[in-house]
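Late entry, C2E complex.
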Amino acid sequence: MGSKPQLYILDDDAQYAGLLVEVAAKYGWSVIAEQNAATFLSLDLTENFILVLDLHMPEIDGIEVIRALADKKANFLLILISGFDERVLHSAQQLAEAHKINVLASMVKPINIQRFVNILESIPMGGDQFSEKNLVATPSVTAEELQQAIQQHQLVLYYQPQLDMKTGELLGVEALVRWKHPELGLIFPGQFISLAERSDLIGVLTEEIINIAVAQSQKWQAMGFSTVISVNVSADNITSLSLPEQLITLTNKHEIAPEAFALEITETSVMEKLTSSLDVLNRLRMKGFSLSIDDFGTGYSSLTHLYQAPFRVLKIDQSFVMSMLEDKEAMVIVEVCIMLGKKMGMTLVAEGVETQEVWDKLRALGCDLAQGYLMAKPMPEDELIQWAKNRQ
Ligand code: C2E
Ligand code: CA
Ligand code: CA
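Prediction complete; structure with ligand written out below:
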């Protein structure tokens, strides 16, 4: 089924690369070896591919390559190699996985050629094995269609509860967008958010989402169901200087307090636009909106950045939460996030809580709020109300 994807070998050691090329070619792979990371990154990498990556290279190292490919939203499977010990490989693997990059294997030099062959031979053909997150926009969905969908109000919000870990009380909900496509059914954000970001539609998309959320908040308030709604915003949204004013006008119009409204911004977007977004973030905060730093632990913010940006809530990335009981390093990250957040006076939210054991551990560590499939999946508004009623 299907032909083999392109195989790239990125290693500054020409001798090693040559050996791997020879072996891969023998097994029918079309393989390109590259010694320079910058040259590799300038290639057209739009098709699915496999990358054998040496972590230790001069100038641009393997970690930077991973980050650059994640930013490009490249669709690839990764095989890591390193001359260092297992620990370096392990943390690089964690980093890649935090970016939802599928890591096939890690190998320490000198490489066992038979193992390399086995890995190559075990790669299934077809597209499914490529990272879900990076599979942007199915071919049937175009920017024009998305634009029309926004105009025709085909985007809807699902709400996922966030519970107080001490009392079990519902403290807030995260609004997650879905596209109710007339023919294709429900489409998830992983399939159109990055399309929106690339095609300059993210401004109108976010505006539509915020309109829906604010109207929903007003409706719930009238029913006596008051809860904080968190909305996700993208990097480009937080540099829009008019955002604070637009938001305050909207919440005033719907008679809801800014405190009932939170914006979630991923750590990566904040870092990308740090200087240009600090102004907007501070003004949002001064107007009373709550700001959450999302997917924390997957970006590269320093303590100073965290201190500078006015975040009230820190959301620990779900990749760490989901693996914290099996993976010692994930556990350390979760612990450090909780300690850091507490010291900085932030509220901590753990995402991706799927088991009672994880809930118990997080609670013991002093995490404030939890969100995840253990308690509830994201739901349409009526189901959420029903869910809340059933719990009482
Ligand atoms: P996110 O902000 O990190 O949202 C959490 C994602 O994890 C959601 O996926 C949610 O359904 C899923 N999730 C929640 N609990 C669990 C759990 O226990 N286990 C597992 N495995 N998954 C869980 P969803 O709804 O597909 O959204 C994916 C991403 O799309 C979001 O990640 C967010 O970055 C983005 N997104 C969603 N809605 C919007 C939006 O309105 N605007 C923007 N700009 N981005 C959005
Ligand atoms: Ca979020
Ligand atoms: Ca998140």
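The radius of gyration is 23 Å. Will revisit in the morning.
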